[in-house]
Amino acid sequence: ERYRDQNAGDKMNPFAEQEAWEDHQIGKATLKFGSKDRKQISDDYKFVFEDQIEFIQDGMMDGVNFEDDSSVEFEKSMAESAFEKLQDDRKTLPVYPYRDALLQAVHDHQVLVIVGETGSGKTTQIPQYLHEGGYTKRGKIGCTQPRRVAAMSVAARVSQEMGVKLGHEVLGRNNHSLVCQVGYSIRFEDCTSDKTVLKYMTDGMLLREFLGEPDLSSYSVVMVDEAHERTLSTDILFGLVKDIARFRPDLKLLISSATLDAEKFSDYFDSAPIFKIPGRRFPVEINYTKAPEADYLDAAIVTALQIHVTQPCDGDILIFFTGQEEIETAEEILKHRTRGLGTKIAELIICPIYANLPTELQAKIFEPTPESARKVVLATNIAETSLTIDGIKYVIDPGFCKMKSYNPRTGMESLLVHPISKASANQRAGRSGRTGPGKCFRLYTAYNYYNDLEDNTVPEIQRTNLANVVLSLKSLGIHDLLNFDFMDPPPSEALLKALELLFALSALNKLGELTKVGRKMAEFPLDPMLSKMIVASEKYKCSDEVISIAAMLSIGSSIFYRPKDKQVHADNARMIFHTGNVGDHIALLKVYNSWRETNFSTQWCYENYIQVRSMKRARDIRDQLEGLLERVEIELTSNFNDLEAIKKAITSGYFPHSARMQKNGSYRTVKHPQTVYIHPSSGLAQALPRWVVYHELVLTSKEYMRQRKSNVGGVPLRLLRKAIALANVNQVENVLLKARSTKTNTGIEELVPDSGVLANGMGDL
Ligand code: CDP
Ligand code: MG
Q: Looking at residues 246-260, what average pLDDT do you find?
């Protein structure tokens, strides 16, 4: 963006962008890496790089033909022998020589801890071995993944390897019905059938399965995979599977991990034996920057381009970013800069990968790179251990990831960009040495690495809001949470906070037992405040509207589309839904209902700058919520003209998130008072109503904001000092007053001493 501005008047000069890029290199004095000989390497890069630029400018690279052996014939025969090749590939994986020993170990022991480096074949192969070994004759094999993308892509891979269709039953080439033995299940997306015997799923989904099947009787094997990630759901699963293994001696339990801290897992599972799969790893050269990088996004892009221009096209690049937004920004900048160089450099195939990336685009990262091109994968933490991408030779590690943290005192949860741990840094570096010697460029100093990074990442259970988990455990009949068999117990303060919230939401009674409302809430795979909103909609006779709102809030990606060249149009289109300052929840409802009225028209989405894909997802989620309503016996009733009723339902879930305007246009939260601001993307950003309830608070750190400035077309997050209130309900005074007099938020002080704050806050109204 910066360069575009600089060269705005220079459109006639075809080299303008290129020169700007070069200036930038010199201006930045390129990146200098670590120790002496590494510096040498880096300087070499620089020279080659600058030579190359001249080379390009002289036009000497014109007409260079890269070898191209991917003829049509070749591809055709490839497709035909693809299955055989996959079978051969399977045999080259590090786990393969241990197949029989592994089956023997599973036979001999009920619980087994498996350790092997990422890419050794644990996730894709072990469930297949067990299937071949006959374990699916008496039940399914379930394999949990902390990430949705991993569950989907691994299931797709395994179905290819087994030569079966994924998920639902279909007819094959000769009209034989193909058995769909492999499926996956992630929240709001069940891609399994009654033929499924290998089921990949997120850890959260297995947790939910306990609600319907407390002894997991339909499973013969449960493999808790990627155990080292220690997500909240995985940690809770540990406790639950350990418990059922005691009274189900036929159930086999595998705990698999990519790191070497297996002793801890073994100790927890009563000294379960550890099965090690020796890894194959090539040496990885680690490079550090000499000084900390002010703008890691830019530094990462420059490094990637340097590698691309100076190194032969025999290895792909993997860059770790913190999230979708950063990845999209990087993708745009990279495209822009490589476009400036045209055909003068080898093709750079840019492959983003993050959780919300549409499924059809995810497959792209696994496609082999053509010989004359190079792939650059822009990934979140997902590529650290959950996904293995072959052919990576260079890893660029800015040293950050997005991490949830939770302050049990204030009850505030935030997703912040945080330095990674040493363990993560080493995992990341290791991604470059899988198929040959690799190089890792750490965009931080060696001093940072040795002195500032924590050894290991704190398990999620110790830094998150537990309300959801507490509700699930309570509905599983586990009452004594303080004595639950946690591998690492959460802070007791966080447990109490969760109990307090659930009590305030009427999900628990004074004795901490699940109420009728709580039982209904537990059926919804949603945050308790969101489930409460749905359950409350019964009373206000607006369940139809409320599940639409809940679905729209659960999409996880943006609904509004804002192309750069049409921002004004897009903003105008968006504001129509906000007419009357109805608040973001109601605006979301209006979007959904308008779309529904057009019979879910794609054209309508285009005309209104709405993301079709997000809307389709909302519709899917809504369908499922409708099914769940039926299950908890709440009638589907519509009350669209009574916005008050809808707001009341929202408020009965979200009253703990209410805030009152202060004189200067900022807001003060009612519980645990602190100053917050309305997010500029909210329809209420200008309206500033006296009272709002918000969906969530988003904290942005200073570093993050600094980096934002260099992004293309970024929203002015930097204008916001601290917190941002998103999704509001306008004019809620009387709703809040109502809420105050209802049971939902009285008597909390009986549970924990500190809860007086909420009562006071509400009293203030
Ligand atoms: O679980 P682990 O990290 O040990 O390895 P894996 O996920 O089973 O991956 C083994 C191999 O399968 C990788 O090296 C990839 O070559 C391949 N794979 C793939 O091509 N596509 C996927 N979606 C997953 C794995
Ligand atoms: Mg794996």
A: 91
Q: What is the ipTM of this complex?
A: 0.98
- How much helix, strand and coil, in percent to the nearest 5, is found in the chain? 50, 15, 35
* Long-range contacts from 419-424, C-beta under 8 angstroms, 24+ separation: 419/448, 419/452, 419/453, 419/454, 420/453, 420/457, 421/453, 421/454, 421/455, 421/456, 421/457, 422/449, 422/453, 422/454, 422/455, 422/456, 423/259, 423/455, 423/456, 423/457, 424/381, 424/384, 424/457
- Which residue lies with its CA nearest to atom 21 of ligand 1? 157
pLDDT at 68 over 80: no
Instruction: Answer whether 406's CB lies under 8 Å from 696's CB.
Output: no
Q: Which two tokens stand for residue 94?
A: 């590090």
pLDDT tens digits, 422-455: 999 999 999 998 888 999 999 999 998 999 898 8
Higher per-residue pLDDT: 398 or 174: 398
Q: Is 431 in the pocket of ligand 1 (CB under 6 A)?
A: no
Give yes or no for a contact between 355 and 186, defined as CB atoms under 8 angstroms apart. no
In a 13 Å sphere around the CA of 210, the CA atoms on its Cβ side amount to 24
| Residue 658 in tokens | 């209410």
Residue 728 or residue 369, greater confidence: 369
Taking the CA atoms of residue 547, residue 549, residue 553 and residue 554 in that order, the dihedral angle to the nearest 10 degrees is 20
Distance CA 250, CA 640 (A): 53
* Residue 612, C-beta contacts closer than 8 angstroms, at least 6 positions apart: 602, 605, 606
Ligand nearest to the CA of 116: 1
pLDDT at 759 over 50: no
The answer to whether the CB of 392 is under 6 A from ligand 1 is no
Ligand 1 centre to CA of 122 (Å) is 8
**Which residues, 6+ apart, have CB-to-CB distance to 529 below 8 Å?**
467, 501, 505, 653, 654, 656, 657
What DSSP string describes 310-365?
A: HS-SSSEEEEE-SSHHHHHHHHHHHHHHHHHHGGGS-EEEEEEE-TTS-HHHHGGG
Instruction: For residues 296 and 372, give the distance between their C-alpha atoms in angstroms, rounded to a whole number.
Output: 28
Are the CB atoms for 735 and 714 separated by under 8 Å?
A: no
The answer, yes or no, to whether any atom of ligand 1 lies below 6 A from the CB of 490, is no
Please give the distance, rounded to the nearest whole angstrom, from the Cα atom of residue 459 to the centre of ligand 1: 25
34 lines ligand 1 (CB under 6 A): no
- How many angstroms is it from 387 CA to the middle of ligand 1? 7
Please indicate whether residue 157, judged by its CB atom, sits closer than 6 Å to ligand 1. Answer: yes
**3-class secondary-structure state, position 668:** strand
Helix ranges (DSSP H) in 36-185: 36-57, 72-80, 82-92, 99-108, 122-132, 148-162
Contact yes or no for 399/323 (Cβ under 8 A): no
List, in sequence order, every residue forming a beta bridge with 196; answer none if it has no partner. none
Q: Is there an atom of ligand 1 within 6 Å of 159 CB?
A: no
**388 CB within 6 A, ligand 1:** yes
* Centroid of ligand 2 to alpha carbon of 124 (angstroms): 7
Tell whether ligand 1 has an atom less than 6 A from the beta carbon of residue 116.
yes
**Considering only CA atoms, which residue is closest to atom 14 of ligand 1?**
119
In the chain, pLDDT over 70 holds for what percent of residues? 78
